[in-house]
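User: I'm curious whether this sequence folds into something compact or stays loose and floppy. Could you predict its structure so I can see for myself?
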Amino acid sequence: VSLFSAPGEPSGTSIIHTGIHADADLAKEWKPEWSGEAKKELGIDPLAPMFLFLGRLASQRGPDLLIEAVPFILEARGDARFVLVGEGHMKAELEGRARELGVAHAVVFAGALRGEAKKRRTLL
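Assistant: Here's the prediction. I'll summarize afterward.
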């Protein structure tokens, strides 16, 4: 069985892209009260720069690369905060590495977002 076929012929395979379908959320009218709401809930200053990782905490997604970059970013912007939204087998390892690097104060592990459209809009 070949996974490839000549141009114009169906291959029998499908590409399933990863990510979220945020079109419906993004198309809605923005409400001013949404601004900064997620930051407040996470104890982050509304004016602090926030880096958001939204995905499974697994090696395929590279959350470890973000954690390794945190000390360098904090050198330039000490008020920066990093929010990792998601669950996965790397969570404990990432939390430990943030502690080892001395940056745990700047990293929030927010857990999974399951169907929480309002929070997702706020983070986007």
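Summary: Helices lie at 23-27, 37-41, 63-76, 91-100, 117-123. DSSP finds five helices and three strands in the chain.
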